[in-house]
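Ticket #4471: complex job returned nothing on first submit. Input attached below:
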Amino acid sequence: MNNDSDTTQSNEPPYTKEEFMNAEQEMALLTQQSLMQYQREYVPAMFSKMSDLAKLKLRDIVKWGRSNSLWPLQFGLACCAMELMDFGAARVDAERKGYLLFRGTPRQCDVMIVAGWVTKSIVPKVKRLYEQMSKPSYVIAYGECATSGGPWWESYNIVQGIDQVIPVDIYVAGCPPRPENLFSALMKLQSNIRDGIDRYETRSLSENLQGYESERV
Amino acid sequence: MAIMRINVGPIHPGTHGVLKLVVDVEGDTIKRVEPHIGFLHRGVEKLMETRMYMQNQSYTEKLDYIAPLSWDDLYVNSVEKALGVPVKEPAQYERVILLEFQRIASHLLWLGTFVNDVGQLFTVFMWCFRDRAKIMKLLEDVSGGRMFYVNLRLGGFNKNPPADFKERSYALCDYLEEKLMAYPDVLDSSSIFMERTKGIGVLSKDDAINYGVSGPVLRASGVEEDVRKSHPYYVYDKIKFKVPCTYNGDTYDRYEIRYEEMLESISIIRQALDAMPEGPTVGMPIRLIGPQAKPEHVIMQEELPRGEGIIYLVPDKQRPYRISLRSPAFINLSVLPKLSEGMKFADLFSIVGSLDVIFAEIDR
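Support reply: We reran it on our side without changes. The output follows.
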């Protein structure tokens, strides 16, 4: 009897099918949590010894600071650059939100506003400017031409949207969009950064790992 | 001293767009400047052959995005000439008024950016944009678009002007005249502005004629030439105005010419408002266009804010068969190597700014 019972017990697995499924889910959850843990550790290296709570708070502070000091790159290509100038001028006073520090060099900037149509001959320069900006850097496609090519869609020398070349965070529609639209786009970008749903936060996990390795502050 | 070659641009705050300059300097003195253009080329002349006549307005307005109405008007005027459509008289007056407002807005934007380049006088930049915003608001209420107004139709406009158009225009003229008085006080008393413009980039009268420059750049060198006087279109022959002219040909004179032109435009607007008859200004609806074009080709010229613009148009039934544009800014840019030779490197952007180049028009 004992032998029989032993053989039957040894043939059966030590857990039911349901338990197995649960365990698998649990493992996945644990893996995810550990990865999330890794993700949370994305704070400046000087703060890495602090407690988790402090890290979270610091991360929020970094986001807050980042969202409130969006310095745009002084970079205009075509018509929309006129509205960009109006954006910084007397009627739409953009300085009250802290957007107005247009910088001449990409190394001091956070936001690149692509204003105007992008031809094939200017693409390498735009790409170079984007790469020279310190990460995290954000891109706003301002106007129809930067979004999709606009009225020059059929032209042989036009890139049909800057998103074929560099990643874009916010698209602004219009030909040209009013300066107020740029204002709302920057406010949207601001809130995205603050809520942690900008391009740098919402990529898939595997991409994130690589990204954080290369883009550590 | 050895000659050093410096590359400026194509994306540079001082070049007013995408202009690449290859500069050879000896110490701080410029030996040679070579402008490289074509970074905004999109084949607009060819694209215009694929569109119906009135659809092309959305292409012509983007040629000169500081004064979109000027190229629009030149194009529509040449199409009217090709198809033999007369322009209604009230519409002619209204076009003159809007074109002159557009010229003031264009010169204001130029002045703001130029002064900002020359000496960081950000106050004047703010003033210019404040005054330009008033003009843009009026044009927006007249046409419906803030920056690009596709409001011209064959023989008139897409709609009648608003009921208070005349009063508002008079009030705006008074406002602009009052505000423009303050500009020279600030600029002429600023030693930075004077030292960076007086005697910089001198273009002699002979050179100006030989290079074929036009507009304020030509008139600053002492040639009294204006298409509004020499080949009047619309009602410019019924309006009394003088062509401002200065004789030094330097950067300061180019500023002075544009300033005088703004005041002259205000007087033109006032006269046109006085003489503007009552009546509808609505032109032909777009879908009715398609008559047989009569002439073999049409050449039309107008005085744009940047100079003399010419359109050569070979008409077909529904669309232009061939269009060729003569851009004033392209010709004006060609004197840049001549002007900047022997100047200091820091004066280069003062000279580039004073030519008032615009690259959508140059690269086409």
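Residues 89-119 of chain B form the longest helix (31 residues). Closing as resolved unless it happens again.
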